[in-house]
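Working notes for the structural subgroup meeting. M.R. asked for a predicted model of this chain before we commit to crystallization trials. I am recording the input and output together here so anyone reviewing the notebook later can reproduce the run.

Input as submitted:
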Amino acid sequence: MTDVLERQLSLTDSSDESEHTIVSQFERQVAAVPHKLALVTDETSLSYRALDLKARRIAAGLAALPAQRDRPVMLFMKDEAARVAAMLGVLRANRIFIPIAADSPAQWLTQVIEDSGTAQIIVDSSTRSIAKRAAIGSVTVLEAEQLAHSL
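Returned structure, recorded in token form:
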């Protein structure tokens, strides 16, 4: 049985897999309809191109940080558009993320950080102070808007 499984895994085409990722699907949509609305919230609306630009900048900001690529990124934001851009940016940077509700208390954040080994917390202006209180050890608090405008 193990031999069969190993053969099946070795026959898997990695390029095939990359075509079915969230990022690759999103990139195809950006290429197809860059000016159509991708995201509409009570506060803002973003075209596919604008959302892609924010996600790319967040990914670049994460990639520029010291090597902690094997540790997750916590997303702790109230701003829905920033949260979606951060999700796409983290995935584009080939990292994993842990979404946390914006109304979570600092003690809960600290517990999740300890349990998960979180390296960075991406926040918005409304969650920054709670995240700073919760951040322990070498955890870095990064503001989504600053990352999205950093390059």
